Amino acid sequence: MDYAIVATGGKQYRVSPGDVLDVDKLPAEAGDRVELTQVLLLSHDGKVTVGTPTVQGAMVIGEVAEQRRGDKIVVFRYKNKTRQGVKTGHRQFLSRLEIKEIVAGSVPPVRRGRSRRPVEEASHGP
Description:
4-stranded antiparallel sheet, about 130 residues, mainly beta
């Protein structure tokens, strides 16, 4: 199973080709192609590549299906003892993305463990 973890709008999403997800509003119209370049992790043919902090050359290509607003969130602030309350609401602007493909790019080999450095002889005492 091929998937990637991408960061957009300060949040991280796990995406696969064919997925539809809502992200914070992107500056694109419906039908436009979007490239998400902040790929934090990439799984391709069972091999997982973790970026430092991003996977170099990897990107997720999607298409903006629609620009919309999310569900209303009701916020009620209440001051105890004085019985004062303020009710407000909020609706976030969202972009609905359809993930088309995940491009791996040039993935460098993953180095595991610590780098081996030669150990210098330490002198004990003066």
